[in-house]
Write a structure and sequence with these properties.
23% of the residues lie in helices and 32% in strands. It is α+β, with helices and mostly antiparallel strands. The protein has a domain at 23-35 and 43-106.
Length: 112
């Protein structure tokens, strides 16, 4: 009977982290509440009631900026939906610059 061979395991270098795209996630309850093609022209209007954010950094996702939008029903229906936005730092800076530019432009428009 042969003796078992010992296998020397060398640690493999950690693979480069995957590059995740910027994304928005909608909860299933919100997707279910939006009318489909059977009701064309029917949209859903929600009130943006709050925005919160956080930063994260880990080995798998890398450095991320995470936003949480809280949207509420605007009519007789009741419901609150949490919409998540996950951005790379450059995309977050780009979004901030775009919002800042738009806010400055709208302030220059004369009131009616």
């Amino acid at each position: 009977m042969k003796s078992p061979k010992k296998v020397a395991k060398t640690p493999k270098p950690m693979r480069r982290r995957l590059r995740f795209q910027n994304y928005i996630s909608f909860p299933q309850e919100l997707r279910d509440a939006i009318p489909g093609p059977e009701l064309p022209g029917c949209a859903r209007l929600l009130i943006l009631s709050s925005i919160a954010g956080a930063c994260a950094s880990d080995r798998f996702f890398g450095k991320r900026v995470r936003l949480k939008f809280l949207a509420q029903e605007s009519g007789k229906l009741k419901g609150t939906f949490e919409i998540g936005v996950d951005l790379e730092p450059d995309a977050a800076r780009g979004l901030a610059a775009t919002l800042r530019e738009l806010a400055e432009r709208v302030e220059k428009i004369p009131s009616r």
